[in-house]
Structures are given as structure tokens and as C-alpha cells.
Design a protein that fits this description.
It is a single chain. The protein has 11 helices and 12 strands. It has 2 domains: 267 residues, Aminopeptidase; 107 residues, Alpha-Beta Plaits (2-Layer Sandwich). With 397 residues, it is an alpha/beta fold.
């Protein structure tokens, strides 16, 4: 593995190209599932840089896979460098994807141009629709991530942290079906669907004290009837579920479905359930990977906050069901909350450039370190396997 030039020099060399990506995405935000122009822009740019690009991957809309032509028959270990590029409706790139996507591409270009024969095969995977439908889950179901040793990406943030710590999440919509009748004239002929929904929520309240720590159920009544003197023949409940671990969210869903079944039986309703969004797994951050990320940040004179509060959910966790994932949080240097208009505006200036460059440096150094220390990667894989235990049944939707 012959080094051609220092990593920081190649980062600087490709910084104008990364800035072009950052600026374009900030100026042309496309929401989840509608990233047509963004995907086309990135594919064109990568082809101009000499990549062989396939788009879409396995018919997953607006996805792409970019690899070097010389690596097409390579037997080297493969690393998936993930690119996210969807924006948030009405809030632009408030999720930070413009900077993180540019950082991923900058990272790949820098490493490939710093070494004559890098021991990893680096592949860029464009993963659309992260904010809503979980595009990575569709790619996962089609086996896209099966051949990689690990994946890596960054999350822009007000602070540096070793991992974007997430929880497992899912949802359920439950429809109760009764029979309409006049509430005063002939109520005995009616079956009140709203009663089924109310009892369902009471059942959840009775269950809540007995849930495992970290399990959450939050819900609303979507349809409770039209007027008081007509017994509603249909009523719906919509609930969000969260848990610390993927297998816990699957068990929680079963328990909530049992609450619905019991409520329907007791109120003589029929019912059905549906899921509107994918089930997201949590991201596992092992001791070795966490230590490595903090070590890299310290080498780059970046503060690393090891306190990791759980924040939201992401389809990155589902990739982590299969392979280890590095998902460091990179500070943009401003104490501005994610998913705000202020954060989106910050990415258009110096904070966005700072997050992009530091993100690329952190990812590059992590990959470089693992290339020189394969035993460290084996330890990370071992910790990942022990955590996942390879016994979980994966639910793709």
C-alpha cells in the first residue's frame, strides 16, 4: 500500500468539487422520494470523476452505486460509503444531508488519490428517501449490503459525537369497524367503533407500566365519528412505537396488536391493522468503534462528546442489522438544532463547509486506520455479531 500524498492534501485538492455538491444541494432541495434531479446531478458528477455508476440499483428509485472501473473484478474487502440527499419538506437541508453527502464523496476521492493501491474497495452508494420511507431498507431487502465489510456516513450536528445514537421505531394504524345506528332511537342495533378505539387506548395504558425500559407508545384517534347522535361505524387509531432494540420493537408491535384484538372482541367490533412506515432498527455503536472515532477526532483536534443521548430513528439502523456501521456526528460549529430553518441556513455558509470538510476527514481517517489495522476491524465485527447475535428475524416492512 504505497502512499502517494498526504490525506489532508487530497482533501484540499477535491474541496472545490465537494463545495459544488454542497452548494447545489442547498440550492435545489428535493424531498424524500422525489430526488430525481439530485440523483441525476450526483451520477453525472461521479461519472465525470471516472466512476462506473449504476442507477438505479435493483430498481430502487433514485439510488446509485459508484465504483472504480479497476475495482470491478477486485477481491479486496469492500466498504460502503453512504450518500444521503433528500431534504425535509418546507425546511430544506435541515437534516444536513447536503454536507454529509458532499463529505462522503470527498472522502472517497481523497482516499483513492492518496494511495496507489488502497487495500479496501471503496464504493459510493446513493440512498434516497431516508426521511420518510427508508430507502436503505429497500436496498437491504434486495441484498445490496451483503458483500460489504462495513458502511460509513456522517450526521451533521451542533456537536461532535462518536455515533448518531438512534432507537428502533415503527408505527401501526388500527381501523375498528362497527355498525351505525341512531344513538337514541335504536342504539341496541349499533356497534360503536369508537368504543373499540377507546378501549384499545385504555388497554395500552394498562400495559404501559409493564413495558421494558425504553419502550414507548404514543397515539391519536384519527376518526371518531361525525355527530353525537349517530353511533360511529368506523373509528381509527394511529400509534408510534419506539424501543431500544430492534427485537424489542417487534415484540412491542405484537403486544399492541393484542390490545387491539382484545378491545375489538370486548366491544363486538371487527378490526384490521396496517403499517404506514418501515420498521427502523437502532444503530449499534460498539466500544471499539466508539473509541476509534473519538481517537480520530482527537487527532484532528476536534472535541468528542462521548455522552450519547438517544435521538430519533433512521434507516441506517437497518443496514446495521447486517454489517457494522460508522455514523459519527460532525459539528458544524454552531449551536443550532437539527431540523430547523436555522440549521438549513447554516449549511449555506461557513458552518456547512466546516461540517463537510471535517466529516470527510473523520471518515477518511477511520477507513485509513482500519486499512492499516485489520485486527481492529475484526474486533468491531466481533462486537457487532455479539450484539446482533445473528438470531433476529429481519422485518423489511
Amino acid at each position: 500500500m504505497k502512499k502517494i500524498q498526504p490525506l489532508n492534501q487530497t482533501i484540499e485538492k477535491f474541496l472545490p468539487l465537494a463545495q459544488k455538491i454542497l452548494d447545489w444541494m442547498n440550492q435545489n432541495p428535493e424531498i424524500s422520494g422525489q430526488e430525481k434531479k439530485t440523483s441525476a446531478f450526483l451520477v453525472k458528477l461521479l461519472r465525470e470523476q471516472g466512476y462506473k455508476v449504476t442507477s438505479p440499483i435493483k430498481r430502487v428509485k433514485y439510488s446509485f452505486l459508484a465504483k472504480r472501473p479497476e475495482d470491478l473484478n477486485s477481491k479486496k474487502p469492500k466498504v460502503a460509503i453512504l450518500c444521503e440527499y433528500d431534504a425535509v419538506e418546507h425546511l430544506g437541508q435541515s437534516c444536513g444531508h447536503s454536507a454529509s453527502c458532499a463529505a462522503s464523496i470527498l472522502c472517497a476521492l481523497a482516499l483513492e488519490n492518496s494511495y496507489e493501491d488502497f487495500p479496501f474497495q471503496l464504493e459510493l452508494i446513493g440512498t434516497p428517501n431516508e426521511e420518510v420511507a427508508g430507502g436503505k431498507i429497500a436496498l437491504l431487502a434486495k441484498g445490496v449490503f451483503d458483500s460489504y465489510d462495513f458502511a460509513i456516513l456522517t450526521q451533521m450536528s451542533p456537536t461532535n459525537k462518536p455515533c448518531f445514537q438512534t432507537v428502533a421505531s415503527s408505527d401501526l394504524i388500527l381501523h375498528f369497524y362497527g355498525k351505525t345506528a341512531h344513538a337514541s332511537v335504536n342504539p341496541w342495533e349499533g356497534v360503536n367503533a369508537l368504543n373499540g378505539v377507546q378501549l384499545f387506548f385504555h388497554a395500552i395504558d394498562m400495559l404501559r407500566p409493564h413495558l421494558e425500559p425504553g419502550n414507548q407508545v404514543n397515539g391519536i384517534i384519527q376518526d371518531g365519528g361525525l355527530i353525537p347522535n349517530v353511533i360511529p361505524q368506523q373509528s381509527s387509531a394511529y400509534v408510534y412505537l419506539r424501543a431500544n432494540r430492534y427485537e424489542q420493537i417487534l415484540q412491542l408491535k405484537k403486544r399492541i396488536e393484542t390490545c387491539a384484538k382484545g378491545a375489538a372482541i370486548a366491544t363486538e367490533n371487527k378490526y384490521d391493522t396496517a403499517q404506514l412506515n418501515p420498521t427502523y432498527a437502532e444503530v449499534f455503536n460498539g466500544r471499539t468503534s466508539s473509541h476509534l472515532v473519538c481517537q480520530v477526532m482527537e487527532e484532528l483536534h476536534m472535541e468528542c462528546d462521548t455522552l450519547e443521548p438517544i435521538i430519533g430513528s433512521s434507516d441506517v439502523g437497518n443496514v446495521n442489522l447486517t454489517i457494522p456501521v460508522f455514523y459519527p456526528m460532525i459539528s458544524i460549529g454552531e449551536n443550532v438544532p437539527l431540523y430547523s430553518k436555522e440549521f438549513s441556513e447554516c449549511l449555506k455558509g461557513i458552518p456547512g463547509q466546516t461540517g463537510m470538510k471535517n466529516g470527510a476527514m473523520v471518515m477518511s481517517k477511520i477507513i485509513e486506520h482500519l486499512a492499516f489495522h485489520p485486527e481492529k476491524l475484526e474486533q468491531i465485527k466481533k462486537e457487532h455479531t455479539a450484539y446482533r447475535n445473528q438470531s433476529e428475524s429481519v422485518e423489511y416492512f
